Amino acid sequence: MNHHPSYLDGNVLAGPLGEVFAVDPTTAWRLCPSCQLPATMAQLHVYGPEPGLTARCPGCAAIALRVVAQPRYLWLQLGGAAGAFRFTLPSTAP
């Protein structure tokens, strides 16, 4: 019997990425460099939540991106081995 871990669809990325992007990120298209499968961000398989979210290709499970949210920052890594971008989140203080 094969055990497949539970995953969420890529729509779960709308919350954290919506903090730093002005457009809906879940509609963005990606062409997987490993298997050449075209898919929207909403179609990615997302695992998490701790320590962050890891989104994988629905065709070959290659890492598409990682997102880690902290109180003041959002970290975004594209692909499996690239450096990460750190975004400063808008202040919610009055």
Rg over C-alpha atoms, rounded to the nearest angstrom: 14 Å
Q: How many beta strands in the DSSP annotation?
A: 8
* Mean pLDDT over the full residue set: 89
Write the element-wise H/E pattern from the N-terminal end onward: EHEEEEEEE
Instruction: Provide the low-confidence segments as ranges.
Output: none
Instruction: State the end-to-end distance.
Output: 54 Å
What percent strand? 35-45%
Helix-strand makeup class:
mainly beta
Helix content: under 10%
Strand order of the largest sheet: 1-4-5-6-7-8
Biggest sheet: strands, sense, closure? Answer: 6 strands, antiparallel
Count of helical segments? 1
How would the global form be characterised? globular
Keyword list:
94 residues, mainly beta, 1 helix, 8 strands
Describe, in plain words, how this protein is organized in 3D:
- Helices cover 5% and strands 35% of the residues.
- The model has no long low-confidence stretch (mean pLDDT 89).
- It has one helix spanning 14-18, and strands at 8-9, 29-31, 38-40, 45-47, 53-56, 63-69, 73-78, 84-88.
- It is mostly beta strands and 94 residues long.
- A hairpin with a 6-residue loop joins strand 5 (53-56) and strand 6.
- The protein contains 1 helix and 8 strands.
